[in-house]
């Protein structure tokens, strides 16, 4: 099998290598000339034998839509596009309709594992028709960790289901990280605790809260004890917001994930107008002292 891979950044670059190691031929295209195999999407399509499989691994949103739209104009009936980026599941239906109108197949694939996927393999959750997924199984098998397929790969449902599962996965990721981070602050702030690092390290084996995220927390503290070199500003790239929007749309209580998303928003404020107002109101109704602005 020989496929095309568009987007060779933090994810796609390593995925190309893992696919090649796993016996899947890859021609990669990236607009960054330092990493690309070919100079354009047209050249990529020349190199990939028909019926083609093209994996898209570019930033979600307008970039992924532009690339998939261009593929819709250039691919042939029977070709298959797999969107492996973190696209919102609602985008998948649009992309699928656009491609299906031209006889081109579409599969969405949530990919997890970050920059560690090259060595550890990637967790995969796919949406689409069974025949399309069957056709791409050698790709999924090369990307996922060794062992039982069902331990790291799932056909979740129809188009959009793979990205829906990845969205929920990332919502959980937000909540887990927030809980570990709050535990870190509690331990690091208490005078009777002399071993913060040692405590997390000792939680890695045997405890109920052992996990890969905990292992990464220990790694982060090894690299930068006290996290001196890291600002307390946390970005988000959409998955947490979409999870909360889904919780609201379906009236599903998701307080932990929602709080963890809002904690990221709070991390970006130098000063909080809302908390100034709380202080002002306490003063108004109760005469409670206000701490003056510096
Ligand atoms: N980084 C992660 O941990 C991670 C994990 C799973 C999924 N994802 C998702 O995978 C996708 C890629 O993520 P990433 O971390 O590799 O991003 P990245 O920014 O590191 O890489 C994106 C690559 O796409 C290229 N690119 C952008 N526009 C292009 C275009 N029009 N044509 C060709 N190449 C183009 C860029 O040059 C860059 O090399 C995103 O949707 C992201 O959300 C990321
Ligand atoms: O499962 C994974 O490999 C990660 O979740 C991955 O998808 C990525 O690191 C997130 O996109 C970060 O998301 P935020 O920018 O929203 O934290």
What does this entry show, briefly?
By secondary structure, this protein is of the alpha/beta class. The chain has 13 helices and 7 strands.
Strand order of the largest sheet: 2-1-3-4-5-6-7
How would you state the average pLDDT, rounded? 98
Quickly count the domains. Answer: 2
SSE series: EHEHEHEHEHEHHEHHHHHH
Small molecules (ligands, ions, cofactors) in the structure: nicotinamide-adenine-dinucleotide, 6-phosphogluconic acid
CATH architecture of the largest domain: 3-Layer(aba) Sandwich
Number of helices: 13
CATH topology of the largest domain: Rossmann fold
Strand content: 5-15%
What is the overall shape? globular
Low-pLDDT stretches: none
Please give the radius of gyration in angstroms. Answer: 23 Å
SSE arrangement:
Layout (H helix, E strand, L loop, with lengths): L1 E5 L5 H10 L3 E5 L11 H7 L5 E4 L5 H13 L5 E4 L5 H12 L4 E8 L4 H4 L2 E5 L2 H6 L1 H7 L9 E5 L3 H29 L6 H7 L9 H12 L15 H11 L5 H13 L5 H14 L8
Parallel strand pairs: 1-2, 1-3, 3-4, 4-5, 6-7
Antiparallel strand pairs: 5-6
Helix pairs in contact: 3-4, 8-11, 8-12
The structure holds nicotinamide-adenine-dinucleotide and 6-phosphogluconic acid (6PG).
């Amino acid at each position: 099998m020989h496929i095309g891979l568009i987007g060779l950044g933090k994810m796609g670059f390593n995925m190309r290598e893992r696919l090649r190691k796993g016996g899947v031929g890859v021609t990669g295209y990236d607009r960054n000339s330092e990493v690309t195999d070919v100079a354009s999407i047209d050249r990529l399509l020349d190199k990939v034998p028909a019926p083609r499989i093209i994996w898209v691994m570019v930033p979600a949103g307008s970039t992924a839509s532009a690339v998939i739209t261009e593929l819709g104009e250039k691919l042939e009936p029977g070709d298959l596009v797999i969107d492996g980026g973190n696209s919102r599941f609602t985008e998948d239906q649009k992309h699928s309709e656009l491609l299906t109108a031209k006889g081109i197949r579409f599969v969405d694939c949530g990919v997890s594992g970050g920059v560690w996927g090259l060595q550890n393999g990637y967790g995969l959750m796919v949406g689409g028709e069974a025949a399309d997924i069957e056709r791409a199984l050698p790709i999924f098998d090369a990307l996922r960790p060794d062992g039982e397929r069902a331990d790291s790969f799932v056909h979740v449902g129809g188009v959009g289901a793979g990205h829906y599962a990845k969205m929920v996965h990332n919502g959980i990721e937000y909540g887990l990280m927030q809980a570990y981070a709050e535990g870190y602050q509690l331990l690091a702030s208490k005078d009777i605790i002399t071993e913060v690092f040692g405590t997390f390290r000792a939680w890695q084996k045997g405890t109920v809260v052992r996990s890969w995220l905990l292992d990464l927390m220990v790694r982060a503290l090894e690299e930068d004890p006290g996290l001196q070199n890291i600002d307390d500003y946390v970005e988000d790239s959409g998955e947490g917001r979409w999870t909360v929007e889904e919780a609201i749309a379906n009236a599903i209580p998701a307080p932990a994930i929602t709080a963890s998303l809002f904690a990221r928003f709070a991390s970006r404020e130098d000063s909080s107008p809302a908390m100034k107002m709380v202080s002002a109101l306490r003063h108004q109704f109760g005469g409670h002292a206000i701490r003056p602005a510096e």
